[in-house]
Write a structure and sequence with these properties.
Length: 233
């Protein structure tokens, strides 16, 4: 399994007591599968993503990413693991206003220390390939304000794939989009997951566009409940 959470409990301070955001969650996603985690506001979706992204350590339980148990890893080791194995698509596109679409992707390669000449050329080629894969081949030179909301979301998806992650974590990708564009983004994520073999987790409160995903897991009060799994899983 590319991503595995085992018996994960996460609590937050809540006055004199603690609030349980994730309650003994066990959840695994293999390479090449997209699992949608669906639940109402406050059910624990963002907490699940943050734990899977190794941004928050759970109170108990284990998180394994690309075969590596993350329990007890220090900050530097976690940063390294995230950089090489995890791609994150945030709800807001958080693109840098002054950079073109292609440059937004190439920044990721630089962060990864791949700044030398041969590597720069490879990063340029990979950025253009990924923009092509998300249907933006003709928009590589555009800056965020010259793109639509749906196009910006596609750039953030391509950017998250730039370092060829094992695990792709996606937070509410359709919340700022109209119906057709929302459906197109979920279809795109499903296709990229299958083509590139990422283990993808998409959290959302919106069940509208989930027809083509491999698996749907409901979340309620920090507990998961399997709702639908396709045969290929
Ligand atoms: N930093 C925090 N401190 C205290 N409680 C928190 C914190 N973050 C989240 N919570 C609580 O944990 C529970 C789960 O929150 P979480 O953000 O994971 O839910 P969510 O399903 O992502 O909600 P939304 O769809 O509104 O973003 C909620 O009851 C929330 O109020």
């Amino acid at each position: 399994m590319s991503l595995r959470l085992t018996d994960v409990t996460l609590t937050y301070p809540d006055g004199q007591s603690r609030l349980t955001a994730l309650d003994r969650v066990t959840f695994a996603v293999p390479a090449g599968a997209l699992a949608a985690v669906v639940g109402p506001s406050g059910s624990g979706k963002s907490s699940l993503l943050a734990v899977a992204a190794t941004l928050i350590a759970p109170d108990s339980g284990t998180v394994t990413v690309a075969g590596a148990d993350t329990t007890g890893l220090g900050r530097a080791a976690l940063t390294d693991l995230r950089r090489h194995t995890i791609g994150i698509v945030f709800q807001q596109s958080n693109l840098l206003p002054s950079l073109t679409a292609a440059e937004q992707l190439r920044v990721m390669a630089h962060l990864d220390g791949r700044g030398r000449a041969g590597a720069r050329t490879r990063a340029r080629t990979r950025a253009l390939d990924l923009l092509d894969a998300v249907g933006l081949a003709g928009q590589a030179h555009r800056r965020p304000h010259q793109l639509s909301g749906g196009q910006r979301q596609r750039v953030t998806i391509a950017r998250a794939l730039m370092n060829d992650p094992t695990v792709l974590l996606v937070d509410e990708p359709t919340s700022a989009l109209d119906n057709d564009r929302g459906a197109a983004v979920v279809d795109l994520l499903t296709r990229l997951t299958h083509e590139r073999g990422t283990a993808t987790v998409l959290v959302t409160h919106d069940r509208t566009h989930l027809g083509a995903v491999d698996r749907i897991v409901g979340v309620h009060d920090g507990r998961l409940r399997e709702e639908m799994v396709t045969e290929s899983q």
